[in-house]
Amino acid sequence: MHYITDFAEGFMNLFTLGGENFIGWMTSIVPVVLMLLVAMNAIIALIGEERMNKLGELSAKNPLTRYMILPFIAAFMLGNPMAMSMGRFLPEYYKPSFIAAQMQFCHTSNGVFPHINPGELFVWMGIASGIKTLGLNEMELAIRYLLVGLIMNFVGGWVTDFTTAFVAKQQGVTLSKTVEL
């Protein structure tokens, strides 16, 4: 009986800890994301959804703008995880590729722009402290990481284009390459 009660207490403790974690999110990241969402929707309302769709359509015409410039602007202005929401203005065909590029950029820019992904700043700080211990300049590493990240984001986005085409063909699905206004 002792084992059964210990198991039941441990099982319930799992949910208690999950609830505590959830409350931690409710007092930290959830309000921030909610306020960013409100701000982004306010900006979209001021600019106009039609203009934002046109921006997405213009960005979608060129892989460089799709996978280097738009993810950079979205991450710099909105941070992680709100930067992913800019993909809603792209055609359906390019959304998976944009998300692939965007997710990578939120990590590779942390050294230069820590506000983009503060939740993972500890990773960069650990690497930077090692570089500093070696007597090297951590900002040089941060810039190299950012530049290599931009190139790799582009490659990742473009490769995902080919993957999307393959899967769409395999599944018999046609995804639009134009923004539906």
TrEMBL record:
One of its GO terms (cellular component) is membrane. The keyword Hydrolase does not apply. Keywords: Membrane, Transmembrane, Transmembrane helix. It comes from the Bacteria. One of its GO terms (biological process) is phosphoenolpyruvate-dependent sugar phosphotransferase system. The chain crosses the membrane at residues 22-47, 67-87, 142-168. The keyword Transmembrane helix applies. Pfam families: EII-GUT. NCBIfam families: EII-GUT (TIGR00821). PANTHER family: PTS SYSTEM GLUCITOL/SORBITOL-SPECIFIC EIIC COMPONENT (PTHR40399), PTS SYSTEM GLUCITOL_SORBITOL-SPECIFIC EIIC COMPONENT (PTHR40399:SF1). This is PTS glucitol/sorbitol transporter subunit IIC. It comes from Streptococcus pantholopis.
